[in-house]
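Figure 2 data, in text form.
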Amino acid sequence: MLKLGKTQTLTVVKEVNFGVYLAEESNLEHRVLLPAKQVPEGTKIGDEIKVFLYKDSSDRLISTTHAPKIQIDGFAVLKVLEVTGIGAFLDWGLEKDLFLPFKEQLRKLERDDEILVRLYIDKSDRLCATMKGLYDVLFRQSPYRRDDVVKARVYEFSKNFGTFLAIDDKYSARIPIHEDCRALKIGDVIEAKVAGVKEDGKTDLTLRERAYVQIEGDAEKIMQILESRGGELPIHDKSSPEDIMKETGLSKNAFKRAAGRLYKERKIVITETGIKYS
């Protein structure tokens, strides 16, 4: 069976002046053209050729000996070549650029952006790219362990689970929801530390240092926020995690540790309505 979006080894069954037709030996009736400019010199009927199947600009099935940067059910980082009103066009290594529909984008794209996508077949039986569903195709078992520093690309934000990233552009990982990732956007490549690896291979990352190191930076951040707010901040250790995150960008535990440090150093006082300079 000829498989759209896949590399296959097919047999030459017919020669024409504009190329050769290829088919599977078990199904010679279904044929696909390999254009003449890509036919290896000396090719004859009965030879086998490894090709990738896609569709040309006239929406006809065609084959190529060029290897694309992505195949069906796979994923890759591709560069944006053009952005239009209906979507973007990506460089995937073939003559016809790969279409990324607007509805399959997770953020506004610009020319030369590099984004992680997967390949799928749409309802019109065409190959398209999508920024969605990467969690299902990325690898789980990364070679990294706790405290390793890795490079990872942001590919999705979840209100319930946190920020999802691809370590080395292939291993799925997550920064938990309690960490402030508001400064990040999809496509950003960052350095992060492995916070833990679960038994099923899922990896948690963190942008923060260990608590005893990070606490000084968090305390300084709180003092800077107090200064910008006239010396008062309407949150304390009994405030909700959501309010604390909104006001400071810190998790509730991180805020409590840093505020406790500042209180012990007598730099702040804690009131019924929040904290302020002492």
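Caption note: The chain is about 15% helix and 40% strand.
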